[in-house]
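Structure tokens please, single chain.
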Amino acid sequence: MARILATGIVTLDHTLDVEQYPCEDDEIRALASTSQPGGNATNTARILAQFGHRVALAAVLAEDESGDRLRERLVKSGIDIDACARHPGVTPTSHILRSRASGSRTIVHHRDLPELSAADLQSIAWEEYDWLHFEGRSPETLRAVLPQVREAITDQPISLELEKRRPGLEACLEWADVLMLSRDWAEGIAARPEEAAAELARRYPGRIVTVTAGAEGAWLVQDDQRVYCAPTPGLHVVDSVGAGDTFNAGLIDALASGEPPEQALVSAVRLAERKLQQTGFEGLTKR
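Here you go.
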């Protein structure tokens, strides 16, 4: 199995399950309440560890009690956290309202902790990893680090998740081999997901570009190769939290395991669909 480094954020997610979303000024009772590690790169790392890969995480952990608990839970999940930085501050939290009626979620995020900086990453031996995955969060850090990573490695793939548009992030795309776009990010490129994927593949020859669009399915483009994977009809959505992170993990696992891009896309979509049909990530890769 591959040695993979995921770089991004770790949060403490507090999830409340409700029968359906309340109206403004309503007072309702939750059906369940849970707390667990979250954050895009962290979720992706947890799933890759389930596949049996040797996974490390580079993220900022707060020097507080919640940060200590997150540290313990990540290690228990099989994730190497030696590359994580500890900084004074408060652990970032995401408060998630999850509807039992629709399976959708609404997230309110609070962060009062510095983002991962280039200085936090300077001691990482990039060449020791088989795959390097980056969450597209801090353009300043990525612009400084990605050229150094490219210089340090030989032919190891670099993947870059593009979920939210941030000023300066487009300057980082040239350093990645695999570009993973959300529908929202793709809308800033073209009207349709497949058009956005094709446009970025034209700008960056040789790169694998994917766009996920929920119930519309997912697209993959690499040079002249264009692949579409339709969702499974009649899918019952239980929990959509982390579905995109699951797709990313499935794509990385498939490509790192030698699957051709067109098959890797299908593997990633089907894994994300399994995630949608269950609560949380536990046991996701065992089916």
